[in-house]
Amino acid sequence: VLIGEQQGFASTNNTDPAQLRAIAGAAIANAKLSPPNPNVAIPTSGTLPEDCPTNLVDPDLHNLSIATQKEWLHGMIVEATKDKRFRINEGTSEISGGLSIIANSTGVHRSSTETAATWSLMGMGVEGERITSFDYFSALSRKAHGTAQQIRSSTKEFCERVLKGLKGGPATSY
Fold first, then answer.
1. CA dihedral 139, 141, 145, 149 (to 10 degrees)
2. How many CB atoms within 10 Å of residue 24?
3. CA separation for the pair 56, 113 (Å, rounded)
4. Where are the extended beta strands (E) located within the chain?
5. Tens digits of residue pLDDT in 53-68
6. Cα separation of 148 and 98, whole Å?
7. Which residues of the chain, if any, have pLDDT below 50?
8. What Cα–Cα distance (Å) separates residue 79 from each residue in 8, 115, 122, 137, 153?
9. Using CB atoms within 10 A of its CB, is residue 47 exposed (0-12), middle (13-18) or buried (19+)?
10. What angle do CA 154, 157, 161 make, to 5 degrees?
């Protein structure tokens, strides 16, 4: 709870309405007893530099055909299945465009338009009785040119990392 620059805290694991009202009252009482805290607000940031890019649209990516997108996804599948020990759970490819607006408490500071190609893969390694846990990766490109190769190389790196898990030893934890 904030009362000016005074803040108070209280918590409960009870969801009874009467108990919630009581705990809110306790938070208010705590705030009234607390000294002012000038750092209680989120500070406003400065405006973004004028040379910040505002147009991240790649016309080739914006106009990409579904056939090309399918080719990219097919390339991912081909790369992921080169080693028969890798099993695909799910692979995706998405082409998107959008408008981003950056604002803070003093107003809008910048807007930009963008296109992006994103791809992701989820899978696991299997070798006889050994099985890795499922793992996942995703990546992004803002340009159509070179994306097919980026998809293949990032997929290859991901599959190699997953298959290393078949050897045992330390693993990444999330």
1. -10
2. 14
3. 6
4. 2-3, 6-7, 55-56, 86-104, 107-127, 130-131, 135-141
5. 788 899 999 999 999 9
6. 22
7. none
8. 56, 25, 13, 14, 8
9. middle
10. 140
The reported pLDDT for the residue numbered 173 is 55
- What are the angstrom distances between the C-alpha of 131 and each of 64, 88, 99? 38, 13, 42
How far is residue 140's CA from residue 151's CA, in Å, rounded to a whole number?
9
**pLDDT at residue 43, rounded to an integer:** 62
Find the Cα–Cα–Cα–Cα dihedral 62, 65, 66, 67, rounded to 10°. Answer: -150
Q: Is the dihedral of CA 158, 160, 164, 170 positive or negative?
A: negative
pLDDT at 44: 61
Structural tokens at position 33: 């007893």
